[in-house]
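Re: Re: token formats

Sure, here are both.
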Amino acid sequence: MAKKAAAKKQGKQPLVGKELLNKLKDLSHLSKREKAKECGYVVGKKVNLSGFMNAILEAKGISLDGDANSDGRGREASYRIKVHQNGQMVIGSAYTEKMGLQTGDEFEIKVGRKHIHLTQLTEDE
């Protein structure tokens, strides 16, 4: 247990559950981004706001993932998209949120015979 506490202090383990909610009470004077940093939601140099917000919802007992407890209403990600009339394809926010992507993240596109491969670029590339 001591290792887990030490890892959290070093920012390796983000806070979750009641621990997260209690910490947020102490950080009410900070911005959302600063709260996320203080609670350990940092990947490299980027703040993972999506993961932070999802953890808050989960800590409050709200699930957006459509698990077995859901009532079956609403849309779920289908992992299928179509090409629009203008030739574009749109990847919805359900996918980008699931990956923790942020505005401005960049990707390299490689086109194969019958596939498109996206590779996320890191800041040092």
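Second one below.
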Amino acid sequence: MARAGQDSVRRLKSNKKRKASSNSWLTRQLNDPYVKLAKEQGWRSRAAFKLIELDDRFRLVKGAKRVVDLGCAPGGWSQVVRKRAPGAAVVGIDLLEVEPIEGVTIFQLDFMTDEAPGLLTDTLDGPPDLVISDMAANTVGHKQTDHLRTMALVETAAHFAVEVLAEGGSFVAKGFAGGTDAELLALLKRHFKTVKHAKPPASRKGSSEWFVVAQGFKGRGESEDSAG
């Protein structure tokens, strides 16, 4: 029990070997209610709550039959899909190793490789009606470079969704504010009936991350006709 006058916020003991940024991240983790709640409820990461909150708002997952989870490590988003759409076929991909999840086929592979898209769609035995992406590029410490690298992944995920989604399907992806997403939004607005930005409550207030939610995929034929 904390003594009277003791700081109620958990703080790390100083460690000269740790970088200041690492100390800051660890302190946030220790005091983050979503981290605690994720552990209590059995989610693999606090990111699960971001998809839960997006699904509560946009009704993305319920009724989904085939789902692709891009950048699925450590598995929180796939867990949410399995919980909310237990009958759905789910396939995930990530560079990192992911512990098995019942009902989810997981590939440890770079999504940017030529064989990855076909592998994902072949596994589902039919077009997905939901593509979700929590992918982000490894940071190099240069804000503009990190932003551009992540947005390149988001745009690749969007092009993949446009190529494989079933008519009426949805696409959700994490991005970061930075003003270079005009082409991405143009692509999505051309192919989906609605495109919105959202920042779920589970996203940290100080974070520049946002999520793009595109719903009502028009189908490739209709989209091509409307474009030209």
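Helices lie at 20-30, 33-41, 47-58, 76-84, 116-124, 143-164, 182-191, 220-227. The beta strands are 66-70, 89-94, 104-108, 130-133, 170-176, 192-198, 209-217.
- S.
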